[in-house]
Amino acid sequence: MIATPLRTNSTAESVLQTIRHFLELIRFSHTVFALPFAALAAVLAWVQPDSEFRIRDLVGILLCMVFARSAAMAFNRLVDRDVDAENPRTAVRHIPAGLLSVKAVTLFTLLCSVAFVASTLIFLPKRLPLLLAVPVLLFLLGYSYAKRWTSLCHYWLSAALMMSPIAAWIAVRDEFALQPTLLAGVIFFWVGGFDIIYACQDSDFDKGRRLYSIPAKFGVAGALRIAFVSHLATIAMLVLLWSLTGLGTVFLVGVAVIGVLLLYQHWLVRPDDLQRVNIAFFNVNAIVSFGILILGCIDLWVQRL
Membrane spanning segments where (predicted)? Predict the structure, then answer.
């Protein structure tokens, strides 16, 4: 009579712990990097004179973002599990540490992939989201192999994330357009730059394991210079976005602030001091991402007053 509740509590705790492990596996908190850009693209699409706001489109965008990213991250952990086990920095990740099994992560990846494709049905009768779902998913999953053959793997990742504003625009308007493409350009150079910074931590390991990355090819100092140029291009793309999409003074002031934050990121990380990479990677870039969304929305609201 007493043992049953105890077993029930133990089972509940085990389920919650497994859920927590999966959320940690896919770095769910890192969704903040791409989701705000998708949200801003959707807002820009909804304010077009001939657009109609539908709650189902908003739900569909959120579901597609979560499932596509979860599938890609889980697949990446599967592909990299042997490499992760050899790298002291990543040996504590869930598969090499034995916290999650290969079978469980494989099943999770398949379920998220199916859920992503199924979520595009929400946008019907718009057909482009459904037609593009599988090619987009294959491109996202393909990133996991990039480090095995090209030093430009960082920009494959950024190309994967840059699809988010384009996809959100298509979900709302069922068409390609300039505005989300400019937002995508911002993501391409921004994510590519900060992923290069993050990869500097594994420069020696990548060279020893014969894996490809910009830090492994050009050294940490050279990689940081390339990342700096990439972030200068990010600022240029933000200015271009401002000038060609009718955004106003509020957004332009925000671009200046974001420029300062990107420069601050490069001040935090130096060739002989990589201890603050995680601060630069998550804290600064989360502010940049949400800052662009918030400033863009405020700017559009001010213009409509």
Answer: 28-47, 59-79, 100-122, 128-146, 153-172, 178-198, 218-244, 250-269, 281-302
